[in-house]
Amino acid sequence: MIIATSLIASVHARDVGRYNVEELTGEDSDPNKKPFTITAIEQQRGSLRIWIQPQYGGISGVARQMSRLQAQVSDAEGAESVTLLLNKAVDCKDNGTVYLGYSAEIPSTCEIVKTQYYLLAPVTLKQGRDLGFSVDPDYLWLIEEK
């Protein structure tokens, strides 16, 4: 993994479905100011939906951090940069769930029940192929399939 952060002060590793997730915090970074935590991961038609729970700064804080977010997928043959997109899933009372880009307008026919946010990564993971992304030098997330 080429993505690097400052010296690591803390590592929080956990299982998220069929994936292992490590959330690392840089030595000089405040773990209470992490922009989000990963709550779920789904493989969807050649992409990953990485469901997030906004933390410090709420969803607008996550949106501001997107310009600093760097991501790479890597395996034994090397690493390649990927672009992560911030999206939202809006549960509508009578219309089901609508998936939209973060800035897209919610349809006027939607009576919002709940809004969730996710990062869309145009990658598939398998054994030996990992995804890493960071808000350098403060926070780093690593995802690998179990």
Description:
The protein is mostly beta strands and 146 residues long. It has one domain. Helices cover 5% and strands 57% of the residues. The protein contains 1 helix and 11 strands. It has one helix at residues 58-65, and strands at 8-16, 19-26, 36-44, 47-54, 69-75, 78-82, 85-92, 96-101, 112-121, 130-135, 139-145. Strands 1-2-11-10-5-6 form a 6-stranded antiparallel β-sheet, with no helix packed on it. The chain has a 5-stranded antiparallel β-sheet with strand order 3-4-9-7-8, covered by helices on one side. It is globular and about 45 Å long. Residues 1-5 have low confidence and may be disordered.
Write the layout of secondary structure elements.
Blueprint: E1 8-16, E2 19-26, E3 36-44, E4 47-54, H1 58-65, E5 69-75, E6 78-82, E7 85-92, E8 96-101, E9 112-121, E10 130-135, E11 139-145
Antiparallel strand pairs: 1-2, 2-11, 3-4, 4-9, 5-6, 5-10, 7-8, 7-9, 10-11
Q: What is this structure, in a nutshell?
A:
This protein has 146 residues and is mainly β. The chain has one helix and eleven strands.
